[in-house]
Amino acid sequence: xxxxxxxxxxxxxxxxxxxxxxxxxxxxxxxxxxxxxxxxxxxxxxxxxxxxxxxxxxxxxxxxxxxxxxxxxxxxxxxxxxxxxxxxxxxxxxxxxxxxxxxxxxxxxxxxxxxxxxxxxxxxxxxxxxxxxxxxxxxxxxxxxxxxxxxxxxxxxxxxxxxxxxxxxxxxxxxxxxxxxx
Length: 182
Hints:
There is one protein chain. By secondary structure, the chain is of the alpha+beta class. The protein has one domain (about 5-175): Gcn5-related N-acetyltransferase (GNAT) (Aminopeptidase). Helix content is about 30%, strand content about 25%. It contains five helices and seven strands; from the N terminus they run E-H-H-E-E-H-E-H-E-H-E-E. It has a seven-stranded mixed β-sheet with strand order 1-2-3-4-5-7-6. It starts with 8 loop residues before the first strand and ends in a 5-residue tail after the last strand.
């Protein structure tokens, strides 16, 4: 992949089960915490299908293979992942978020061989292009022990809107206001 460039990558929405299965494969490779970033929630194929039906997620493909993804989670999807129910309750209570005009980045991941090439930014640019007409904010939580992700989200335009600790980790809740972001 060293000769491939980000211009060789197609960014759009997940199209079928093959895309969803590739998301799961990339997710499995990224579940182990490390300096290069990591993900914390494990999804199932049925769960991804349900999320995709509610609101298509964004993927980046190189030669038909998913090399990065950014999962979309509308507020109505909270029932699909009970582990995230406390996050949704907390987000519902934040005064900074306009009622009904926000959604959650369920998880974002770039294959390690593609990191540092701008795909993270392209995934979020695609989210903004697709969903800014329906939503004002995109929100996510980042484990404080994941500095790579916190830095990348800040670069895109996310700002911290909440911070807390639960029984699993310490979290930074960040939001990107589509109207004021870069």
